[in-house]
């Protein structure tokens, strides 16, 4: 269980997150929605120790992690796929995966697991990452994160700019991981993608979670989408 209790965080003198509370449970996909500037990506970075927490706490299975240096967070079992993927472009698919395995010293079994999830990557192990299509790069970014064998997976807009077939593939992987017990936190702007993947939806505005609802309570025409996401 990932639990965030009343954190305030930001960049220097600029406060972005204000007394924000949130949690992500095992075996659930929790989607975070909000307009640009609401603080969604900053929340992800705060969880990963990339943005300092000024007050409040972040707990993983009851243990505080907000005081740890950033390089220790993945070792505790939180994997992060940032917006823009951030692959090692000059390296091959196989080398990017190997770097993921090194983070927690996972081995061949985990490598086989991620290649089974993404069989297209198995066909491209010797290909340089920067030459992959956008969808294939997103697969590789998720695969590299999953090499950690994480308890929590953070995905920041994984469907951005992808064609429908790739979005469907990533959705299927996310749901398969959910069924295996992974806690997934997904920042997403596409209403259709959220309705097909989420168990719970948290709506952010002004650096806070302003509303949380179960997916079953939402329909495409819900006023919450217009209030927190619409232009």
- Mean pLDDT, rounded to whole units? 94
Helix content: 25-40%
Round the Cα radius of gyration to an integer and report it.
17 Å
CATH top level of the largest domain?
Alpha Beta
The CATH topology label of the largest domain is Rossmann fold
Task: Explain what you see.
The protein has 231 residues and is an alpha/beta fold. The protein folds into two domains: 1-77 and 153-163 and 181-231, P-loop containing nucleotide triphosphate hydrolases (Rossmann fold); 80-149, no CATH class. It has eight helices and ten strands. It has helices at 40-47, 93-104, 108-117, 119-122, 134-146, 164-179, 191-197, 223-228; strands at 2-11, 14-24, 29-33, 53-60, 63-64, 78-81, 152-156, 183-187, 200-205, 208-214. It has a six-stranded mixed β-sheet, sandwiched between helices. Helix 2 (93-104) runs parallel beside helix 5 (134-146). It is globular and about 45 Å long. The two termini are 33 Å apart.
List the helices and strands and how they pair.
Elements: E1 2-11, E2 14-24, E3 29-33, H1 40-47, E4 53-60, E5 63-64, E6 78-81, H2 93-104, H3 108-117, H4 119-122, H5 134-146, E7 152-156, H6 164-179, E8 183-187, H7 191-197, E9 200-205, E10 208-214, H8 223-228
Parallel strand pairs: 3-8, 3-9, 6-7, 7-8
Antiparallel strand pairs: 1-2, 1-4, 4-5, 9-10
Helix pairs in contact: 2-5
Provide a concise account of the structure shown.
This protein has 231 residues and is of the alpha/beta class. It has eight helices and ten strands.
């Amino acid at each position: 269980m990932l639990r965030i209790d009343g954190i305030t965080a930001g960049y220097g003198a600029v406060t972005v997150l204000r007394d924000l509370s949130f949690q992500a449970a095992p075996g659930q996909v929790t989607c975070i929605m909000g307009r640009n500037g609401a603080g969604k990506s900053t929340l992800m970075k705060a969880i990963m120790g990339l943005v300092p927490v000024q007050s409040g706490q972040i707990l993983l299975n009851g243990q505080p992690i907000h005081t740890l240096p950033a390089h220790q967070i993945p070792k505790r079992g939180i994997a992060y796929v940032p917006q823009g993927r951030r692959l090692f472009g000059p390296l091959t698919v196989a080398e990017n995966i190997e770097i993921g395995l090194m983070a927690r010293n996972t081995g061949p079994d985990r490598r086989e697991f991620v290649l089974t999830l993404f069989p297209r990557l198995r066909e491209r192990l010797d290909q340089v990452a920067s030459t992959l299509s956008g969808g294939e790069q997103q697969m590789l970014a998720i695969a590299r994160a999953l090499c950690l064998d994480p308890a929590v997976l953070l995905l920041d807009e994984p469907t951005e700019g992808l064609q429908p077939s790739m979005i469907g593939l990533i959705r299927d992987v996310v749901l398969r991981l959910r069924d295996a017990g992974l806690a997934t936190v997904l920042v997403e702007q596409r209403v259709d993608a959220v309705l097909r993947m989420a168990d719970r939806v948290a709506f952010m505005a002004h650096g806070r979670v302003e509303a949380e609802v179960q997916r079953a309570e939402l329909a495409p025409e819900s006023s919450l989408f217009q209030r927190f996401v619409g232009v």
